[in-house]
Each structure stands twice: as structure tokens, then as C-alpha cells.
Design brief:
heterodimer, A: Rossmann fold, B: alpha/beta, 7-stranded parallel sheet, 9 helices, 18 strands
């Protein structure tokens, strides 16, 4: 079973975000980068599916600056992925279309495959677009927000929708699945795993190798701004009854949200 | 005249609030408004679309589209957008639209800006902004090399206009697309809640570890019912199994942007704030006046949660159900 897992590196949630003076992006020095949390579920699911089949190859891949995204690829290899592909963006802004295009071209170069796994969205830009675009470019189905996968002759895939309801799809042939929380519990990398990961093969390519250039960009992020300061909280006083009365009055007369 | 295509979603006999917001914005832009509806029985919603500004409504009303299927819905909506000739497409950032439109965009060789919170649309241009890094900053999403500009707007960000009951629209029927069979919708399993989903809710009452137990957590439902609100929870509560994960608000749960968010016994971990800081008005209720949630709150109440919750329920009932 050949499985590709697409990873993105994102700033750790605790990171303080600062804007570049020209407003073209965030100041990246001092940012702690981690694997996108949803991508960990994708890696775990790939390993489980491979091992349940009694063998195969899990290839982790990422588009981004080589010097840093390699860390997350090695983490995934330490969890148990077999090899990696890094597509070096070398500091260029890459939109969802360019990322999906680069990933699809790299996958096509590798040959036949059974499955592509991603996270349901990356917590930095919350675009939730790469899996679907990847499906379109590879001409295979996609399912997002996946909370359960049952592999067999065909695959049964559960997708979480409104109010905890689930849509169940039957997918035949290769597909792109975007993992939600709840799909599994990602394993931690073991120490021997970390040692082994250092020696696992990592292919390198550039955006140009993948046939991608900035001329293909469809959306560009610009004019980054910090949110306006919130006015200080208004603390209510008195006993429970008095506070409750006052809150209802404020919500109706001042905030006008009721 | 420039056109705008608005993808509409409805439940039962009504269009969703997010859809009405977008119709209102489309009407105000001065563009010709083409609306699109997909699913069995949706034709009944076409007059409603007209009341809020649609001049033409495209309808793909087929029994086999009763359950969402990414393949057939992509085919149906792509055909509608192409036929409309619109260069701007608006849809609400719903669970369905977020799955569907990136693929539609790729098929149209165009870009999609998802999870937007600011929309400026006029006869010639469209300008959108979205939050990034869990709301720690925002940026404009500029469309480049994108013949169709697809915008997914978070609900509850724009006003809904007054309906014009006399307005009518032409309707045009679209045939159901053929399915390849590579992906079939097998089943739909109902969820725990029939209320508006958290991601679209206008009012949310959320509880955290401070609620103490699964039993106590149920008290929030009375309060939510009094307000017509949807109930949410912090990660601690979902992980403890008091509520299903589908109710979790935060970084590994739902991102929400209601008009009113009431947080009960939620201390305000950064991962929780990441999911709800886009709320218009935040009320924090906590026994600890130093909890970090108060730094994000509009109004703060300090005291015993189990005294405050019933008092609030009573006051909301009095005020809203006279």
C-alpha cells in the first residue's frame, strides 16, 4: 500500500505574532514552528493503514522552506513514515493552489498510489483548500473532515458535518482524505524512531522541478494587520441576581445583540 | 453589467442566515444577482431568494442530490457558475461550502478565499479580508490570475436586509450531473443536536471544566434554550467525555463567530481563545476573577456558576419571552 501524507508546518499556538513593517507577512524570527496538529492524525492513520495491510510505504511530503519544514518531515519519519519529499519554496509565498499543484506533480512523479492523507485544515490560514484542489488535480475523489476510515475492497469514510452528524462515503480507488480530530490518537516518536528517522531517505525538489511558478498564484495575502485593541472588560457587581439583571440590560441596550 | 453568483443553502422552508447576508450584500453591490440552489425540493426556496435580491435563480432540484456528494455537487455548481458568467462567487463558510468550493475553484482555474470576515463588493471589484493565526492578525486576500473570484464568508458578519415580498426572479433548471461511481454517499448518521451548528450559530453558550461534571453541564442547556443558543464546550470538557467532540470550540474543534458568546467556567486557554475570539460580544462567567478569559471578554461576571446560571436563564426568559 502506497500512501502519501501531506504536512504543513505552522507557528505554535503560543507564539506571539508580529507583523513585518511592510505588512507583507508575519515576522518569522522567533516563531516556533510545529507540525500542523491535524496533520498528526493524517500521519498516524497512514501508519495504521500500512501496518494493517502488513506492509507498504508511507511517504511524507511538504511544501515550504527546506531548512525548517524538514524538521516536521523528520518528526513524521520518527513516528514511522518510510521516506520523505521536501518541495523547497525558498521563501516564496505559496498559495493553496501552488501548494496543491506542487504536491500533485511530486505525487505523479512517484507513480501509482492508493491514498493521499492530509489534515482537515492548517491552523495558520484555516483555508481548508489543499485537499480538495489536490483531488481535482489528481482527478480522484476527496473527503474532508474525516473522523473514521474503514479500509476494505472499497473504503468507507465518515465525514463529520453539522451538530456531530456524519456523512458516510464509499470510495473506490485512490482518493484524498483530510483528517479530523477523533480519527485516532497520534503516537509519540520513540527515541529509536528518532535515531532511525535521521537515516531515512528524503528527496528534495524545487517548486520549478514540480512545474510550479509564482505566475500560477491565484490568491495573495497582503496588508497584514494586528486586530484592533479590545476595550477593557466591564466587570459586573452585586449578587447573582443583580449581575444577571445587569447583563441582560447591557446585552439589550448597550451591545444590542439580543 | 457585472454579475455575482450567490450559492444558497437552506433547511426546511428557510434560507440560512449566512445565505441571506450574502444576498443582501450582492443586491447592494449593484451587480446582477444570480443565485444557485442544489438539492431535492430546493425550488421551493427560489421565491425567498428573490425577496432578498436574486434576479435569477439557478436550480438543480434532483432526488439523487439529497445527500452531499463532493463529485456531483462540484459538477452541478461549476456548471451554474459558468452559465451565470459571474466573475465573483459568494458562499457562506458552511461545512458543505468549505468542502465544495476549493474544488470548484480548481476546476475553474481560479482562487478561493475561505473563512473571510470582511467583504466589500461593488460593481467592479471585490475586496476581502480574513483572520490568520487564530485571529492574532488579519490580511487582505487579493485575487491574482483568477478569472472567477470565490469568497467564502463566515456567517454573522454582515447585515440581513429587509425582504421585498413583491420581488420575483426567473428560475432556470439544471440537470443532475452524472456520477462516476468513484465516490458514493452511503448514509447519513444523525448527530446529537438538531440546533444550528456551532460554526453558524448566532448565540453560543459554552461551558468548561468549571461546570464540574457532565450532570452539571446540562444546566447550560436550559440557559441555551432560553436564548435560542447552541451549546459549545472547551477541550477539557470534550476530552473528559461530558460532551461529544463535535461540540468542542477551539483550535482542534470548531472556529466560531457568533454575535454573542457566553463562556461558563472556561478559564480561557489560548487554544480555546483561538476558536472564539472572533465573537462580537463575549461574556465570561467564572468563579475566578483572574481567569485569562476576562482579558478577551466584553462583560465579566464573577461568582458561583450554579447560582448565576439559573438566574441568567430566568432573566433571559423574562426579557425575551414577554
Amino acid at each position: 500500500m502506497r500512501i502519501f501524507v501531506c504536512l504543513k508546518q505552522v507557528p505554535d499556538t503560543e507564539t506571539r505574532i508580529q507583523i513585518k513593517t511592510d505588512k507583507s507577512g508575519i515576522e518569522e524570527s522567533g516563531v516556533k514552528w510545529v507540525m500542523n496538529p491535524y496533520d498528526e492524525y493524517a500521519v498516524e492513520e497512514a501508519l495504521k493503514l500500512r501496518d494493517a495491510k502488513g506492509g507498504g510505504q508511507v511517504t511524507v511530503m511538504s511544501v515550504g522552506p527546506k531548512s525548517r519544514v524538514t524538521d516536521s518531515l523528520r518528526t513524521a519519519m520518527a513516528m514511522g513514515a518510510d521516506d520523505g519529499i521536501v518541495i523547497d519554496s525558498a521563501g516564496e509565498q505559496v498559495d493553496t493552489f501552488m501548494a496543491a499543484k506542487a504536491l500533485s506533480e511530486a505525487i505523479k512523479k512517484e507513480g501509482a498510489f492508493d491514498l493521499v492523507l492530509t489534515g482537515r485544515h492548517a491552523i495558520d490560514d484555516n483555508a481548508a483548500s489543499v485537499p480538495q484542489i489536490l483531488g481535482e488535480l489528481l482527478n480522484i475523489p476527496h473527503v474532508t473532515v474525516v473522523s473514521k476510515i474503514t479500509a476494505g475492497e472499497s473504503m468507507l469514510v465518515e465525514r463529520e458535518i453539522e451538530g456531530g452528524a456524519r456523512e458516510i462515503f464509499e470510495v473506490t480507488g485512490p482518493c484524498v482524505l483530510a483528517a479530523n480530530k477523533g480519527l485516532n490518537t497520534p503516537r509519540y516518536a520513540s527515541l529509536p524512531g528518532i535515531m532511525k528517522a535521521k537515516k531515512k531517505p528524503l528527496k528534495e525538489m524545487t517548486l520549478a522541478d514540480a512545474g510550479v511558478s509564482s505566475a500560477q498564484m491565484k490568491t495573495r495575502l497582503k496588508d497584514f494587520q494586528l486586530p484592533p485593541d479590545k476595550p477593557a472588560v466591564k466587570m459586573l457587581s452585586g449578587d447573582a441576581g443583580a449581575q444577571a439583571k445587569e447583563l441582560v440590560r447591557l446585552l439589550m441596550e448597550e451591545a444590542k445583540v439580543l | 453589467m457585472a454579475k455575482v453568483f450567490v450559492f444558497l443553502e437552506g433547511n426546511n422552508q428557510d434560507l440560512k442566515k449566512g445565505s441571506l447576508e450574502l444576498l443582501t450584500a450582492a443586491k447592494a453591490s449593484g451587480r446582477e444577482v444570480v443565485a444557485g440552489l442544489v438539492g431535492p425540493g430546493v425550488k421551493a426556496l427560489a421565491p425567498k431568494a428573490a425577496h432578498y435580491g436574486a434576479q435569477t435563480t439557478f436550480v438543480c432540484d434532483a432526488a439523487e442530490l439529497g445527500h452531499y456528494n463532493p463529485e456531483t455537487f462540484t459538477d452541478a455548481v461549476t456548471a451554474m457558475v459558468k452559465d451565470s458568467g459571474a466573475d465573483v462567487v459568494l458562499a457562506s463558510s458552511s461545512v458543505l461550502a468549505r468542502d465544495l468550493f476549493p474544488r470548484v475553484a480548481a476546476r475553474l482555474d481560479s482562487g478561493v478565499a475561505s473563512d473571510c470576515t470582511i467583504l466589500k463588493l461593488d460593481g467592479g471589484t471585490v475586496t476581502v479580508r480574513k483572520p490568520l493565526y487564530s485571529g492574532k492578525c488579519t490580511a487582505e486576500v487579493e485575487f491574482v490570475n483568477s478569472p472567477v473570484k470565490i469568497v467564502l464568508m463566515r456567517p454573522n458578519q454582515l447585515p440581513v436586509g429587509q425582504p421585498d415580498a413583491a420581488a420575483t426572479a426567473q428560475t432556470k433548471d439544471f440537470p443532475a450531473p452524472a456520477a462516476s461511481g468513484k465516490i458514493k454517499t452511503k448514509d447519513l448518521v444523525k448527530g446529537s443536536s438538531s440546533k444550528t451548528d456551532l460554526a453558524e450559530a448566532n448565540i453560543i453558550v459554552a461551558g468548561g471544566r468549571g461546570m464540574g461534571s457532565a450532570e452539571n453541564f446540562k444546566q447550560l442547556e436550559d440557559l441555551a434554550n432560553a436564548l435560542g443558543a447552541t451549546v459549545g464546550a472547551s477541550r477539557a470538557v470534550a476530552d473528559a467525555g461530558w460532551v461529544p467532540h463535535s461540540m468542542q470550540v477551539g483550535q482542534t474543534g470548531k472556529t466560531v463567530a457568533p454575535s454573542l458568546y457566553i463562556a461558563f467556567g472556561i478559564s480561557g486557554a489560548i487554544q480555546h481563545l483561538a476558536g472564539m475570539s472572533g465573537s462580537k460580544v463575549i461574556v465570561a462567567v467564572n468563579k475566578d476573577g483572574d481567569a485569562p478569559i476576562f482579558q478577551k471578554a466584553t462583560y465579566g461576571l464573577v461568582g458561583d456558576l450554579f447560582e448565576l446560571a439559573p438566574k441568567l436563564t430566568e432573566e433571559f426568559k423574562k426579557a425575551l419571552h414577554k
